[in-house]
Design a protein that fits this description.
Aspartate Aminotransferase, domain 1, Aspartate Aminotransferase, domain 2, 2 domains, 13% strand
């Protein structure tokens, strides 16, 4: 039987593939410390769980409007209005089973299949951006991020990629996989280009509450930008609710169109989880603040330990919970081909990370090598894992290979 070409070429989120590999090794009795996936090690706060249980007991278990329960949309609109300093109305809001769906919905709402419509997206970046652009029949246009700019992009590089076919730009700040934050001056420059060339902006702001040194700034807050910005956010990262699958997006024009995509794909978001989201947004934020404070402490620990490894250089990220260290010298020192080979080497020593190629093809002319580590692991695991990583890089044989015998036990 024939399998469609679109299925064969559909991209994936490699973090989950590596996680499956890690889980397989653990089932085999191997000791692996994982930094490969952005899964907070905190439990969902008790009061949010209780809100979901209350909703279930109250019979909130059936279909809802595809756009979401109106009282929940009202809470989301109030939250976005306060945090983005704009007026968001409930009818501008759509709720879905996670924020990820809105990537595809936004591409589908702003481009036509096979028409040559282009979507610019950050590279390296969240792999589902490129995957969904291609799946929806649009043309992916990668925008290189610069390590020299703190993993933001050069405005000139963006301007050179804008054509008459540009329909949307995807920005992600704070950024996965680098933790970089787009500065307010750059956001203003992006806004000017969006107005000049009349394209949409998809603002992936799922990590907006995890910004350390400065207050988060949204491009939607810039005068005249909300009408052309799709704000995407959710509960997964802020409230340690990854498995609850609840996210939301807002735009005054596209909301009803995105709601129809929800109808076609999901019918509606999980009913009781919508009430958990409502409670999370409306209740005291103490637990979330504690999580962010802990992430900041872990960030400082992991950055310090990474910079103590020969051949590794790591910038201090401004947000999210990822580091993206430059391992070019380490790769060269070990005689390896690239960061993917280093990733496999580290896994043999009991440390699971992701390589830069899991977040997009290497930008032309850029030969630097990077890996990504998520520092949502405990401080004890960070110290243990980085110790393993240091030994794997600094004490391996000249051929760069893991010791053949009992490498895992030695880790």
């Amino acid at each position: 039987m024939k399998i469609s070409k679109r299925s064969e070429i559909l991209g994936t989120e490699t973090a989950f593939e590596v996680l499956a590999e890690v889980n397989k090794l653990r089932r085999e009795g191997k000791d692996v410390i994982s930094f490969c996936i952005g899964q907070p090690d905190f439990d969902t706060p008790r009061h949010i769980k209780d809100a979901a249980i209350t909703a279930i007991n109250a019979g909130k278990t059936g279909y809802t409007d595809s756009a979401g329960v109106m009282s929940v949309r009202e809470s989301v609109a109030k939250y976005l209005s306060q945090t983005r300093k704009i007026e968001v109305k409930p009818e501008h809001v759509v709720i879905a089973n996670g924020a990820k769906q809105f990537i595809g919905y936004a591409v589908a709402c702003t481009t036509d299949h096979g028409a040559g419509d282009e979507v610019i997206y950050p590279n390296p970046g969240y792999p589902i951006y490129e995957s969904q652009i291609i799946a929806k029949g649009a043309v992916p246009v990668p925008l290189p991020l610069s390590e020299g700019k703190g993993f933001s992009f050069d405005i000139g590089e963006l301007e050179r990629r804008i054509t008459k076919n540009t329909r949307m730009l995807i920005i992600n700040t704070p950024h996965n996989p680098t933790g970089g934050i787009i500065g307010e001056d750059d956001l203003a420059a992006v806004a000017a280009l969006a107005k000049k060339h009349d394209f949409w902006v998809y603002a992936d702001e799922i990590y907006n509450r995890i910004a350390y040194e400065r207050e988060f700034a949204s491009i939607a807050s810039i005068d005249g930008m909300y009408k052309r910005t799709i704000i995407s956010d959710g509960a997964s990262k802020t409230y340690a609710m990854t498995g609850w699958r609840i996210g939301f997006a807002a735009n005054p024009t596209l909301a009803p169109h995105m709601a129809r995509w929800v109808t076609n794909n999901e019918s509606c978001a999980n009913h009781m989880t919508q009430y958990a989201l409502k409670h999370a947004l409306e209740s005291p934020q103490d637990e979330s603040h504690k999580m962010v404070a802990s992430y900041r402490e872990r960030r400082d620990i992991i950055v310090g330990l990474l910079n103590g490894i020969d051949g590794v250089k790591c910038q201090t990220p401004g947000g999210a919970f990822y580091v993206f260290p430059n391992v070019t010298e380490a790769v060269s020192k070990l005689g390896m081909k690239d960061s993917e080979e280093l990733r496999r080497h580290l896994l043999a020593h009991g440390v699971a990370v992701l390589s830069d190629i899991h977040f997009g093809k290497r930008n032309p002319g850029d030969e630097s090598q990077h890996i990504r580590l998520s520092y949502v692991a405990s401080k004890e695991h960070i110290v243990d894992g980085l110790g393993r990583m240091k030994r794997a890089i600094e004490t391996s044989g000249n051929d760069g290979k893991a010791p053949a015998a009992n490498a895992q036990a030695q880790a």
